[in-house]
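Researcher: Here's my situation. A collaborator sent me these components and asked whether they could plausibly form a single complex. I don't have experimental data yet, so a predicted model of the whole assembly would be a useful starting point for our discussion.
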Amino acid sequence: MMQTSRPSILESAWVRPETRAALDAFFRGFGFTSDEDLTALALWVLEGAREQGERPQAAVALARARVETWLAGVLSQEAGGTLLARGRAAFVLCDGARLGARLLTRGAVPDGFARALRAAVPVPAPVQVASVMPEQQLVLWPFGELLRRWWRGAQADVSISR
Amino acid sequence: MHAHSFSPESAGRRRACVLGLAAASTVVGTWEMHRLLSVRGTTAPELVLVALFTLCFGWIALSFWTAVAGFLQLAVGRRLPGLRWPTAEEESSPLTSRTSVVMPIHNEDPAAVFANVQATYESVAATGHLDAFDFYVLSDSTRAEAWVAEELAWAELCRRVGGQGRIFYRRRTDNTGKKAGNLQDFCERWGRHYDFTVVLDADSLMDGRTLVKMARLMELNPRAGILQAPPLCVGRSTLFARLQQFAGRVYGPVVAAGAAAWQLGESNYWGHNAILRTSAFIEHCGLPVLPGQQPFGGHILSHDFVEAALMRRAGFTVWLVPELGGSYEQPPPNLLAYAQRDRRWCQGNLQHLSLVLAGGLHPISRGHFLMGVMSYAASPLWLMFLMAGLVAALHDGWVSWAHPTAHPVDFGFDTGGALRLLGVSMGMLLAPKLMGLGLALARGQDAARMGGRARLVASVLVESVLATLLAPVMMLFQSHFVFGTLLGYRVSWTSQQREDADLPWAEAARRHAVHTAVGVALAIGTFALSPGLVAWLAPVVAGLLLSIPLSVLTARASLGLWTERVGLFLIPEETVPPKVLERAREVTEEHAVAPVADAVDHVLSDARAHALHLALLESLPGPETVPAALASARRKLLGGSVEPLSAPEKVAVLLDAGTLTEARERRLTRATS
């Protein structure tokens, strides 16, 4: 028989312990530590899911999607790519967890926090513009090279590193 | 082609003047030396002595006439011809170019590095031209702890100044090509975003106004490939560092102005505190790998000279622009750190010997290679000159074991002439100091900011005495490096010491034991040979005998600060610090970052470090972990082993997001249960 993880808070809801543990681990990565927040976040993720007893992997995937959507909304960026990792870093750097689970579960995000979050998203580097820095050819001793070419009939100006 | 971007018509006259006078002085000096030695005919040891003297005297003659040119240039106070400078109207217009400011780092103190970046960033922002600049910290750090600390310091800096999207941080997973390779990697990934690139060193600091001026000069001079702003040494407290700061501030401008005055558009690039034309750099400055083994083959170690030569070969000019100002760096804190840096530079400069005759280079570029070689080869040459002098004296009977009290005059030796030649040589060595002192004294404000005229003169006198005592030690160090390089010692590439820590006596004794022994041997040998010779060699002998206490005492910050309190070796940047310097110091003090004791443990236990590291990991070009190291690290980390991770294992773990996530979840689960 399945047990409810936090019957005192939501007596009607039950979550598999392993699912709850996986979700807790996921949200701890955002800096949430209190049971109350973690429970609320677990329910927020599983709300509307086919059954509250989602398997851990599926529940975490749901959580990722939920948070990613939330981040995309607050940061005005498209979901996907590295948004979740960068958004999570920004959330932790801004100590978003201090505002509690309501920050994620409630629709509105305080303007000040949204601004801080946007400013904290790590952008380690801009988009790359691939380019090649060609190795320059230097003939170290041109006179000797001239002689060598004359003697061997070799090609001129072969890169010295090859 | 834009004629104004190339060396002006007066270049030939200027060069003929400086180089011609140096050559003429060398010929006269050599002739005089030969005359002195040939009183009793010319022997083989004397010929060797004359040859060595020619090289050594030629080197000081070139330095002397360069300093004279610099003195005249500064005294006249006119701008060098060649570069087009902005008009007042142009100066007030916005920059139309984009410039990247890049700082390659390697296992440095992140607090100092990012404080300098912040001060420079804020200084640029204060000019109102921030939109034209982006900043990059290009890490080649190999220590996991340095890597994680840099990430945190970067995020913290971005938070403080709102710099995300303008201050970037990238760490390479391999260090191919060292600093030059680091810069090449930047150029190949992001270089094309920018018209110009300002290269900084880990301890560089630049005023925003200088950066804007450099970018504007590059805009106005489309054939200028590199502009070098000579950095001024500042910011240290040890006596040794303050001596260097003072020397750099008083004598440095004379030397820099002199070099700029005759080298003009074929000047050199010093590897940092310079602006490059990015496209020209990418297209023409990719470094070749030299054939053969180290020390002369392999990757080019001192890349800057070669890049300058390649830039000039491609038709772009390279300018040393002393009047830019606002360019700073830190000197090594003590003699041993200075020698350590010299060791790296020595091998790099000697490697340039193989490039002197390379095809297509400008003659002045070849001259830079030779001057770089001479800056280190001069030491062993002087050493050999001293030894050859003793051998020649013995061989020709000027002195004798059998008659130690005999005087060379007895054999017809022209002692007066020898003293004159010595006096001229010493005068040429000391002249740049006197010229620098003269200029500083003439500028009342400068003199006042250096403690007043009396203290300024006293500082120059004391500095000259200490520099004379330290010179023989450096001569032996550099001779060792040169011979070591020629014999094939490898130079390890490590970050240099940048802290003002005291030097322990034991360490100094270990490093200077040989110098002291040489001093003792030289003193005894010379005395036994001829007591009169001891006086001639007294500065050399005294420097070597005192090498241990000199090294220890000059490394003391307490002594350096004491000299500051009594007004010795003061520089204007200490008495009236420029804003950017003051800001860098404030940031370093206010935002000191706690050191990361164990990188993996920190990333696993600290939520900020963990989230940030994983976010940055996603932007790395590709995992290049060593599977064996990762496998063993996972066994230790996830298998509950108490055995600590090795350095490669730490790096392997830090490159693997999966392992980090798994380990952190386990750690949190353990903590909550």
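Model: Some features of this prediction you could bring to your collaborator: Chain B touches chain A through 54 residues (CB under 8 Å). Strands of chain B lie at 99-105, 133-139, 167-171, 196-199, 205-206, 224-228, 232-233, 274-277, 317-320, 327-329.
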